Amino acid sequence: MLPALLMIAVFFFLPVLAALGLSLTDFDIYALVRLDNLRFVGGGNYLRLLQTPLFWKALGNTLFFVIAGVPLSITVSLASALLLHSAVARGKAIFRTALFAPVVTTLVAVAVIWNYLLHTRYGLINSLLGLAGIHPVDWLGDPNWAMPAIILFAVWKNFGFNMVIFLAALQSIPEELYEASRIEGATGPQQLRFVTLPALAPTLVLVSTLTMAGYFQLFAEPYVLTQGGPLQSTTSVLYFMYEEGFKWWNLGSASAVAFLLFLLVLAVTMAQSFVFRRWSEP
Amino acid sequence: MMPRSRALLVNVALFAAAALSLGPLLWMVSVSFMAPGEASSSPPPLFPHQATLENYRQLFAQTRMGRGFANSLFLATAATLLALLFNVSAGYAFAKLRFAGRERIFRILLGALIIPAQVAMIPLFLLLKSMGLVNTYLGVLLPSVANVFGIFLVRQYALSIPDELLEAARIDGAGELRLFWSIVLPALGPILVTLAIFTFLGSWNDFLWPLIVLTDDDRHTLPVALASLTREHVQDSELMMAGGVITVLPVLALFLVLQRYYIQGLLAGSVKG
């Protein structure tokens, strides 16, 4: 046990603390060469970030991704779990595997497929839209469409994960609840509203917390699909951190970005659990 | 609605959803067999006119994907073995051995789950740099060998080993190592498979950390090599799809064979209230 704790302490807790310290310095390429060049700048990095338009842009893009992507992802997960759970569904095991498959695929590799699917001229998506008489959309080249395209891709990639969790929760709802509601004359939609959804509430909270934390960490999708463009419309907070740190070697400032992201995730998670506690206490 | 039409509707919807999930993957395989340039036509072809292995040949002959494959295979295997070594002993200790501060340390560990790994990345990079481990395989591996989720997974499962069994073995004179090796490990069998597949998939699919640590082209993992391939060969859709296939196929196959264990672990991890 001690070796494991030691590894976690050295390679996780220590770096997290160091990140806080580092974010208060001007660690850059000069300090990387000679540590003498390192200076303590206090909140300087944070102040400067708050005055950097690209940081705000990245924050806005990330929030857009979270606010649009999380509900969409959860809706698709829940809908597919309900379909799979339905008594009349055939071949459940096969369908479950098929719907889950994108989750285990390598993100970079499937981003390559989507890059092609979303191609303006040769992409399957535009050619299908063409059949419906819709003009080709420049998905990854138009600043207004690049983020929606990435959201579409992310939902496709991730919904299976939540679906399996919902499915397990659905299977644990006692059948008697449905029978009782049937005797009282509840219709299908009413059962969904008054039996299934309340029983799923704790799972829903858990799933949305996990999904949200994951969606705040958007990085590989824009890295592979759009390189943060066009016009920085897909630069996320982590993408910004990566460029700040490992392209420009402003490691102090990049640490400050990482810390702000952490605080944001923490705040959202805590707000969510607060709301949930209020809501679940009668 | 009539029961029969309801059944039809549900199954058609499921089929459509499955087609949407698998479609892109199947199409990737199909395009990877197309002749160079064939995919760049409108409307896009669904199947190759004449299937060819040319893209795969070119991929291994002219790009670094073959090397990337070997690197990924090595790193994912090593990460899996190390993770088993470190997390299993820790998980077992948290479940069954008594020591001061056990509950408190475990709670602190669980608390760490909400810290995004990226917060640690920059100091970690500097730490590895000072140890001379940037651009080494060890540098990729070290931060991932012990992991909170893995410890948690093993602990939850180890709690179900009856204390009487361990006591009986101790009374019979088995030492702690012997006990661990011949009683605990066999009892933990299924969760070891779960932990192994999680670690292997996680390592194989990881992108940001290998991208940062491995600066040398020859040491790149498959995802990193594929990402740089897509930047160099923007036009060669067929070649990139072949690259996608060899990146995705191993993990997809592993998942298909061991999906029971994978999903078991996913559920154990998600009900950690």
Oligomer category: heterodimer
Largest sheet of chain A: none
Radius of gyration of chain A: 23 Å
User: What percentage of amino acids of chain A are in beta strands?
Assistant: under 5%
Description:
The complex is a heterodimer of chains A (282) and B (273). Chain A starts with a helix and ends with a helix. Chain A is built from 13 helices and no strands. The model of chain A has no long low-confidence stretch (mean pLDDT 91). Chain A has 282 residues and is an all-alpha fold. Chain B is 73% helix and 0% strand. In chain B, helix 7 packs antiparallel against helix 10 and helix 12 packs antiparallel against helix 13. The relative contact order of chain B is 0.14. At the A-B interface, helix 1, helix 4, helix 5, helix 6 and helix 7 of A face helix 1, helix 3, helix 5, helix 10 and helix 12 of B.
Structure characteristics:
heterodimer; A: 282 residues; 13 helices; B: 273 residues; mainly alpha; MetI-like fold
Question: Layout of SSEs?
Answer:
The complex is a heterodimer of chains A (282) and B (273).
Chain A lengths: L1 H21 L6 H5 L10 H7 L2 H33 L6 H13 L2 H11 L6 H8 L11 H29 L3 H9 L4 H28 L4 H6 L11 H11 L3 H30 L2
Helix pairs in contact in A: 4-8, 4-10, 4-12, 5-8, 8-10, 10-13, 12-13
Chain B lengths: L2 H30 L21 H9 L2 H32 L5 H10 L6 H13 L6 H5 L6 H11 L4 H9 L4 H12 L1 H17 L2 H6 L8 H11 L4 H34 L3
Helix pairs in contact in B: 1-13, 2-13, 3-7, 3-10, 3-12, 7-10, 8-9, 10-13, 12-13
Briefly say what this structure is:
Chain A is an all-alpha fold and 282 residues long. Chain A is built from 13 helices and no strands.
